């Protein structure tokens, strides 16, 4: 099935790309979550609009991405959440929580869709998080999850 990506999908493409994927993947995952729309002849107009919006939010050069990476890796991110007695969280830490914690710690403004968690964060302690700034540049930062 041909689809138009509306968001960056790791391993598949960036917003505005027209890609061909298996029908089930598109129908059951990408389209319901808003990551893609079905490709139509009229959808070509949407592609141009999505690409213009992507250029506005995109980090243009690798040098700029490396500067932001240096800023991110120098920031100490601490996130206070509610937890139980054994150190287990009530719920989990989301990429949106991490993006807002980076901003409140004095770091650069990061889009929550660029924050990549290897596994859901459900315990107190120190965790490693990756932020994909550019297709070739990713920043790794430590997030300290503490009890509120």
Automatic annotation (TrEMBL):
User: Can you name this protein?
Assistant: Large ribosomal subunit protein bL9
Q: Which residues cross the membrane?
A: none
Q: Which family does it belong to?
A: Belongs to the bacterial ribosomal protein bL9 family.
Would I find Ribonucleoprotein among this entry's keywords?
Answer: yes
Q: Which GO terms describe its cellular component?
A: ribosome
Q: Which UniProt keywords apply?
A: Ribonucleoprotein, Ribosomal protein, RNA-binding, rRNA-binding
Q: What does this protein do?
A: Binds to the 23S rRNA.
Residue ranges annotated for the Ribosomal protein L9 domain, each copy included: 13-40
Which Pfam family is one of this chain's hits? Answer: Ribosomal_L9_C
């Amino acid at each position: 099935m041909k689809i138009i990506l509306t968001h960056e999908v790791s391993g598949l493409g960036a917003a505005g790309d027209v890609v061909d994927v298996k029908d089930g993947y598109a129908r059951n995952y990408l389209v319901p979550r808003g990551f893609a729309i079905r490709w139509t002849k009229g959808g070509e107009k949407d592609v141009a609009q999505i690409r213009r919006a992507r250029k506005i939010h995109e980090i243009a050069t690798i040098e700029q991405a490396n500067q932001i990476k240096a800023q991110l890796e120098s920031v100490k991110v601490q996130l206070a959440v509610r937890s139980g007695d054994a150190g287990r969280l009530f719920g989990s830490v989301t990429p949106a929580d991490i993006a807002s914690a980076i901003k409140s710690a004095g770091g650069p403004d990061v889009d929550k869709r660029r924050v990549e968690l290897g596994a859901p964060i459900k315990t107190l302690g120190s965790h490693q998080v990756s932020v994909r700034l550019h297709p070739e540049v990713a920043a790794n930062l430590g997030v300290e999850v503490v009890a509120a």
